[in-house]
């Protein structure tokens, strides 16, 4: 199928995994430091309790976008996401792992303070990658990686890296396939995407020219890892 023809994996995966592991160590360190100096206080004002955001378990401690399930089937879930804010970067390339490594660094630098206010922003989930596979002999695909902007960041600082941009998504619906384990190469994502296509069994229901990979865990989480493939509903 055309959608998957052009994407191949090179031996970049482990190099990327190590890079991502390194930045997650930094993230844990920085967040731990923040927690140490500023313990979180939960204030309950009688009669004015704010209902805590119901977060899916697979987000663990990270903030992640809210959604409701519209339809649940054996092979997929149709979700409706509320309007969201993201910080994104785009890259054209052939290799998914290499592109992901580069884009992850750009976005991670942004949340680590490479922005107009030199503000640090907590890591969120998922790390979303949109793939637009390209036709033609060079098989160059367009990749866009996005980090979710938590509602807690009320005024996201402007990025200083010209390849990084803030953007908003209106409410949208996505067909989602969920699976566990480590995703070691692009072929693993493709296999799951093909399963999702089979379960939906109606390509008129979603956009077929692109799809998303969503990762929720750092390389350090060994058990209960969570990954998703999304097709956007029409
Ligand atoms: C990728 O993006 C570039 C620049 O925006 C565009 O010219 C090109 O057509 C895109 N390729 C695909 C496969 O969408
Ligand atoms: C897929 O859809 C076709 C009709 O469009 C139907 O005949 C077929 O049984 C469906 N397959 C599954 C596995 O639901």
UniProtKB/TrEMBL annotation:
TM region positions: 12-30
Species for this entry: Mytilus coruscus (Sea mussel)
Alphabetic keyword roster: Membrane, Transmembrane, Transmembrane helix
Pfam families: SOUL (PF04832)
Keyword flag Membrane: yes
GO MF entry, a single one: heme binding
Keyword hit for Ribonucleoprotein: no
Recorded family membership: Belongs to the HEBP family.
Name of this chain's protein: Heme-binding protein 2
Cited PANTHER family: HEME-BINDING PROTEIN 2, HEME-BINDING PROTEIN-RELATED
Gene3D superfamilies attached to this UniProt entry: Regulatory factor, effector binding domain (3.20.80.10)
């Amino acid at each position: 199928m055309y959608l998957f023809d052009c994407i191949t994996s090179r031996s970049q995966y482990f190099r990327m995994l190590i890079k991502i592991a390194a930045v997650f160590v930094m993230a844990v360190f920085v967040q731990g430091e923040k927690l140490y100096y500023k313990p979180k206080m939960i204030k309950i004002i009688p009669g004015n309790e704010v209902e805590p955001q119901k977060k899916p378990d697979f987000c663990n401690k990270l903030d992640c976008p809210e959604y409701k399930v519209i339809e649940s089937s054996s092979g997929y879930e149709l979700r409706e996401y509320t309007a969201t804010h993201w910080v994104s970067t785009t890259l054209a390339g052939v290799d998914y792992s290499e592109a992901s490594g580069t884009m992850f660094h750009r976005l991670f630098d942004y949340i680590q303070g490479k922005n107009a206010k030199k503000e640090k922003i907590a890591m969120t989930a998922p790390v979303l990658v949109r793939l637009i596979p390209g036709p033609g002999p060079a098989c160059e695909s367009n990749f866009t990686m996005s980090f979710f902007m938590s509602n807690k960041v009320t005024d996201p600082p402007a990025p200083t890296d010209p390849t990084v941009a803030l953007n908003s998504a209106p409410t949208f619906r996505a067909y989602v396939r969920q699976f566990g384990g480590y995703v070691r190469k692009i072929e693993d994502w493709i296999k799951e995407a093909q399963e999702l296509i089979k379960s939906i069994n109606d390509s008129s229901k979603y956009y077929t020219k692109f799809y998303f990979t969503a990762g929720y865990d750092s390389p350090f989480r060994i058990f209960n890892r969570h990954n998703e493939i999304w097709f956007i509903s029409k």
